[in-house]
Amino acid sequence: MRNETNLYALDISGAAFTKACGGPCTEGCVTLARIGEDAWALGDSKRPDAQPLRFTSEELDAAGIDPARFGLGA
After folding, report:
1. Own/partner pairs for 2-10, CB < 8 Å, 24+ apart?
2. How does pLDDT run across 17-73, given as a tens digit for each residue?
C-alpha cells in the first residue's frame, strides 16, 4: 500500500476506535482503528478533536505497535 493509497484520503468517519490500556485509563489512552486492509488510524483519547495519525501495518510494526494489544487482528 505504501505508494498506492493516500492514507489521509480514507474516510474514517465510521471507524471504531478501541483503547489499549496498561492500567485504569484514568488519564486517557491511545486508540486504534482499522481503516482499510493495510491501514490504521492512531488517536489520543485525551484529545478527541485531534485528527488521528494514519499508518500502514508495516509502519505500525516498525513503531512497535501491536494491533492485538487493542484486541484487533493485524
Report:
1. 2/56, 2/58, 5/36, 5/39, 7/35, 7/36, 7/39, 7/54, 7/55, 7/56, 8/54, 10/35, 10/36, 10/39, 10/54
2. 998 766 666 666 889 999 998 999 999 888 889 999 999 999 999 999 999 888 887
3 burial class (0-12, 13-18, 19+ CB within 10 angstroms)?
exposed
Please report, as a single letter, which amino acid is at residue 37. Answer: E
Give the separation between CA 42 and CA 36, rounded to whole angstroms: 13
Q: Alpha helix (H) ranges present in 1-74?
A: 57-62
Q: Tell me which residue has cell 492512531.
A: 42
